[in-house]
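Please go through this protein, sequence plus structure tokens, and consider how the sequence yields the tokens. Keep your notes short.
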Amino acid sequence: MRYRRKKDWIIPYVKGKKVLDLGCVQHSIDETKKAEWLHGIIRKHAASVIGVDYLASEVVSLKEQGYDVICANVETMELRDKFEAIVAGDIIEHLANCGKFMERAKDHLAPGGLLLITTPNPMNILRLVQLIAKGRIVENAEHTCWFTSHGMSELARRYGLKIADTAYVDDSHLYYKPTFLFAPFLLLNYILCLIRPQVSETICFVLRGE
């Protein structure tokens, strides 16, 4: 299934539930002031939500604003609690050890709980355009890996999880400026994503215990 915004995919899974939001700061405190800040959106729809991030000063700032957040590393966290939904929005591609993350996430899932993962899609058509035009893919310098459906399925299997659903978010407009030269490629991307959602910018996974 194809979406234009991550929140449209995430909200139905977190509505009315006890939620753990991993990487809740989203890079910097400036992101937390934006209307599309994911943790703020989740907070409006979930029954309760705890945020986790390793950025200590940002966590302190959010605590002062009344948010229930914890400073911890998602690869080693021990919260001694279980959650109906765990959200990992665009964080897995930043990690040093995705296996440890999977292990920790599974340990914090309540029976029947869901792990929601979003991550950049390596099969996005605009990445091919970049590769042809520049000889390389322009990506975040902090990223350590890419995931396809097969790769995520195999990682999940090794930690007693399985993919229950896969969706795609065509949110390229958030990452690319529609300059005169690049605008035609954005249009091409939009059309191709309508025809074949699997080439969208972001890939989304729902994982549950086997």
Q: What stands out?
A: Residues 40 and 117 are 17 Å apart (CA to CA). The chain has a mean pLDDT of 91. The longest helix spans residues 183-195.
